[in-house]
Amino acid sequence: GAGVSQSPSNKVTEKGKDVELRCDPISGHTALYWYRQSLGQGLEFLIYFQGNSAPDKSGLPSDRFSAERTGGSVSTLTIQRTQQEDSAVYLCASSLVGGARGEAFFGQGTRLTVV
Amino acid sequence: AQTVTQSQPEMSVQEAETVTLSCTYDTSENNYYLFWYKQPPSRQMILVIRQEAYKQQNATENRFSVNFQKAAKSFSLKISDSQLGDTAMYFCAFTINFGNEKLTFGTGTRLTIIP
User: What is the 3-state secondary structure (H, E, C) of chain B?
Assistant: First the structure.
């Protein structure tokens, strides 16, 4: 596709369950970022991928959160043993190397609700 | 650490009028990029305008312009001839000009254009 695609668009899960959120970046974009947007807040950085490597995982809030990227393309963010405070919109963005000199393109996010 | 502050949680303006959204930031870096992103109800973040810190000239994109005051660490967005489609959340963001270009966001301003 032409843009960044995220799935699912919405996810409702029970507390304690594991969830996987998927991001398909724009083809050829080597940099990929995950952000979290809690209700009424700005976006909070979670993790940065350059190719398949994650040189910056500093934003992951706990060891329940993990992410991987394969083939320099699709990325999956996994949240284990979900808690109610994990409820948020999870946004993915991709860019070319040196994206600030270009642009970071965002997907439409996954709204996660933990009940 | 970098921080971005948006002190106006909500603003409203009549259609066709001009509105200015405020943003201040804090950093010890000398080279960086500043951005304004728009987030409509669709949740997708859309880049409105970008400013390189080393450029003294203020960026403009059609009806959108910025007032970049580097010494004051201020980066305001002016929207001229506002339109109903400008109704959205607006986020100010910041990134360092090398390597990992993760964005640091403010908490946003909800802008409503009144018909």
Answer: CCEEECCCCEEEEECCCCEEECCEEECCCCCEEEEEEEECCCCCCEEEEEEECCCCCCCEECCEEEEEECCCCEEEEEECCCCHHHCEEEEEEEEECCCCCCCEECCCEEEEEEC
Strand partners, B30: none
Q: Which residues of A sit within 8 Å Cβ distance of B?
A: 31, 33, 35, 40-45, 48, 50, 55-56, 59, 89, 91, 93, 95, 98-101, 103-104, 106-109, 111
Look at residue A102 in the predicted model and tell me its pLDDT. 56
Judge whether A109 and A91 are in contact, CB under 8 Å.
yes
Distance separating alpha carbons of residues B47 and B35, to the nearest angstrom: 7
| pLDDT tens track, chain B, 115 positions | 789 999 999 999 999 999 999 999 999 988 899 999 999 988 989 999 999 998 889 999 999 999 999 999 999 999 999 999 999 999 999 988 667 788 999 999 999 999 9
Give the integer Cα–Cα distance in Å for A53 and A68: 8
Q: Is B103 on the interface with A (CB under 8 A)?
A: yes
**Do A104 and B33 count as a contact with CB atoms less than 8 A apart?**
no
Mean pLDDT per 10-residue section of chain A, whose length is 115 residues: 90 98 94 92 91 93 96 96 97 79 85 97
